[in-house]
Amino acid sequence: MTTLAYESGINLFDTSEVYNCGSNISVFLPMHVFNCRRSSLVITTKIFWGGKYVHIFLSSIASLDRLQLEYVDVVFANRPDPYTPIEETVRAMTYVINRGMALYWGTSRWNSMEIMEAYSVARQFNQIPPICEQAEYHMFQREKVEVQLPQLYHKIGIGAMTWSPLACGIISGKYRSGIPPSTRASLKGYEWIKEKIMSEEGHREQLKLQELETLAQRLQCTLPQLAIAWCLRNDKVNSVLLGASRPAQLVENIRAIQVSVHTGSKCN
């Protein structure tokens, strides 16, 4: 999967201390297979709740050890810690960067006020501010990326790295007739997805998908490709993170790039 992504031109790999039960070594297969330079890849990791350590510095050391890297390009604070002052988080991230363990730091699932406070604290105490926010973004979740983050971009230069372009698989259309076995919504621990699908809002989204399917057919692409291309067409989005469980699924998702390039207008 990683080799396929790299051969297709993808060079950003997003990891976390909880992904694959804390093991992310396979992410770096391309460097060994193609003998590519580390500088040709953008590697990110997220820290908050899944590691052995609760301190940002120690968690960063543990992440680098698992990844077998000297540094990551961006380390994300995955959610604000309600029990830690934002100033402490900013100082810890600055320390990690100054030690050469990361080039930049960012936020994930932070609201606009929290991001702005982190920026203000960094400027006040001569620390390093965050450079981007990882935010959920898809056709059914738009406000943060389209309304809130652009304001922060114009004020302080915050970028947007978005995730879940298929809304946890909902926009793929596979839940139209219920919850198929072996899908994410059928697994233990993901009951919240099932509840979302079966809710009144979920039923309204399924009706919207029927209209989107018609549009996808007109554009000669699949529904997932349309959804990903729609995210890519937003010029305020710097990167769209994909998640795939099979090579064929990844190939289909990557073809969304051509859909995005060849469609002349955005799908509003």
TrEMBL record:
Could you tell me what reaction this enzyme catalyses?
a secondary alcohol + NADP(+) = a ketone + NADPH + H(+); a primary alcohol + NADP(+) = an aldehyde + NADPH + H(+)
One MF term in GO for this entry? Answer: voltage-gated potassium channel activity
Which of UniProt's keywords are assigned here? Cell membrane, Cytoplasm, Ion transport, Membrane, NADP, Oxidoreductase, Potassium, Potassium transport, Transport
Task: Note the topology in the membrane.
Answer: Peripheral membrane protein
Give the signal peptide, or none. none
Cellular localization per UniProt: Cell membrane; Cytoplasm
Q: Which GO terms describe its biological process?
A: regulation of action potential; regulation of potassium ion transmembrane transport
The record's GO CC annotations read: cytoplasm; juxtaparanode region of axon; voltage-gated potassium channel complex
- Primary location group: membrane
- Keyword NADP recorded: yes
InterPro entries xref list: K_chnl_volt-dep_bsu_KCNAB, K_chnl_volt-dep_bsu_KCNAB-rel, K_chnl_volt-dep_bsu_KCNAB1, NAD(P)_OxRdtase_dom_sf, NADP_OxRdtase_dom
**Where's the NADP-dependent oxidoreductase domain?**
4-259
Is DNA repair among the key words of this record? no
Family the entry assigns: Belongs to the shaker potassium channel beta subunit family.
Query: Which NCBIfam families does the entry mention?
Result: Kv_beta (TIGR01293)
Q: What is this protein called?
A: Voltage-gated potassium channel subunit beta-1
Q: Which organism is it from?
A: Poecilia mexicana
For this protein's source organism, the top of the classification is: Eukaryota, Metazoa, Chordata, Craniata, Vertebrata
